[in-house]
């Protein structure tokens, strides 16, 4: 009988165990630039609304804490994460003086491959919009296996990825102005 024999990997650096999740809630904006005149759009998916609202609140908290005025932050609500790149492009085309866009969504793994298609399309779409417009468009989309994992990353014990997305935007604005 021929076939592939399985054997244990003896490399001590190789593990088949799932890695532990990391709490990144210590991430904070450390730049010294003024952001009082920044103009930002936050695009928020309505799908998994309890999660995306928590992400939005995290982003708003960081932006206002560093001086971005609420009247300079526009919110676009879209049906789902798939629509985030299109809305980001519309925002950048409509508001020529934007400093950047944050895209917030939550795509939870389901029983089919639909999750993979949507997550890949959204990630690639957001990157392409950023490159096409030469403006920061930040990927603030959770891709957890479960709703509980999403809650942990939307203000729970693993921080708030919306806040982290806002920090990333501020740092990219600084880089662009640099």
Please supply descriptive tags for the structure shown above.
178 residues, alpha/beta, Rossmann fold, 5 helices, globular, disordered N terminus
Description of the molecule:
By secondary structure, the protein is an alpha/beta fold. It has a single domain, classed as Lumazine/riboflavin synthase (Rossmann fold, 3-Layer(aba) Sandwich). Helices cover 40% and strands 17% of the residues. The chain has 5 helices and 6 strands; from the N terminus they run βαβαβαβαββα. It has a 4-stranded parallel beta sheet, with helices on both faces. Strands 5-6 form a two-stranded antiparallel ribbon. It is globular. It starts with 39 loop residues before the first strand and ends with a helix. The N terminus is likely disordered.
Short description:
By secondary structure, the protein is of the alpha/beta class. The chain has a single domain, classed as Rossmann fold (3-Layer(aba) Sandwich), CATH 3.40.50.
Blueprint of the fold:
Elements: E1 40-45, H1 49-65, E2 73-78, H2 84-94, E3 100-106, H3 114-133, E4 137-142, H4 147-152, E5 154-156, E6 159-160, H5 161-177
Parallel strand pairs: 1-2, 1-3, 3-4
Antiparallel strand pairs: 5-6
Helix pairs in contact: 1-5, 2-3
């Amino acid at each position: 009988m021929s076939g592939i024999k399985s054997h244990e990997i003896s490399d001590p650096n190789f593990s088949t165990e799932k890695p532990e999740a990391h709490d990144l809630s210590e991430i904070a904006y450390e730049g010294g630039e003024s952001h009082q005149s920044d103009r930002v759009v936050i695009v928020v998916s309505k799908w998994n609304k309890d999660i995306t609202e928590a992400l939005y609140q995290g982003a708003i908290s960081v932006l206002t804490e560093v001086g971005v005025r609420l009247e300079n932050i526009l919110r676009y609500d879209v049906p789902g994460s798939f629509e985030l790149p299109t809305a980001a492009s519309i925002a950048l085309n409509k508001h020529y003086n934007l400093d950047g866009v944050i895209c917030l969504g939550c795509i939870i793994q389901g029983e089919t491959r639909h999750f993979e298609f949507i997550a890949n399309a959204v990630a690639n779409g957001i990157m392409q919009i950023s490159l096409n417009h030469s403006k920061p468009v930040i990927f603030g989309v959770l891709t957890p296996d479960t709703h509980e994992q999403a809650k942990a990353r939307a203000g729970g014990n693993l921080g708030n990825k919306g806040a982290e997305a806002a920090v990333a935007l501020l740092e990219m604005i600084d880089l662009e102005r640099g």
